[in-house]
């Protein structure tokens, strides 16, 4: 039979972590001047960063789609083993979407 401490400890930890995450967010919100203060510089520089991020994400999704096709029957423990077609299609759609976002931002 489990002791009361063994049964209650996970719940106590969960409540403490939840309270810490819930209560610390509003306390930290007043320490920053603006929400958009993360990237310093003009709007043009910020847009260039976003374009670069969009193209890099597009390339990563494209590589993931290619790997989903190339390695679909390698490991039976992965989701790709049975659903590799839909996985590859989703990666390619995300890749096209990120490339289009980068193109339209420029």
Automatic annotation (TrEMBL):
Mark the transmembrane ranges: 53-71, 83-105
Q: Is Transmembrane one of the keywords?
A: yes
Tell me the keywords, alphabetical order: Membrane, Transmembrane, Transmembrane helix
Q: What is this protein called?
A: DUF4134 domain-containing protein
The organism named in the record is Candidatus Thiodiazotropha endoloripes
């Amino acid at each position: 039979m489990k002791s009361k401490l063994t049964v209650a400890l996970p719940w106590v930890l969960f409540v403490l972590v939840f309270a810490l995450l819930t209560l610390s967010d509003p306390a930290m919100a007043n320490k920053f001047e603006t929400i958009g203060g993360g990237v310093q510089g003009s709007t043009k520089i910020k847009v260039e960063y976003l374009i670069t991020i969009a193209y890099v994400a597009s390339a990563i999704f494209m590589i993931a789609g290619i790997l989903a096709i190339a390695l679909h029957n390698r490991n039976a423990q992965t989701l790709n083993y049975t659903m590799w077609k839909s996985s590859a299609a989703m990666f390619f759609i995300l890749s096209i979407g990120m490339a289009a976002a980068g193109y339209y931002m420029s």
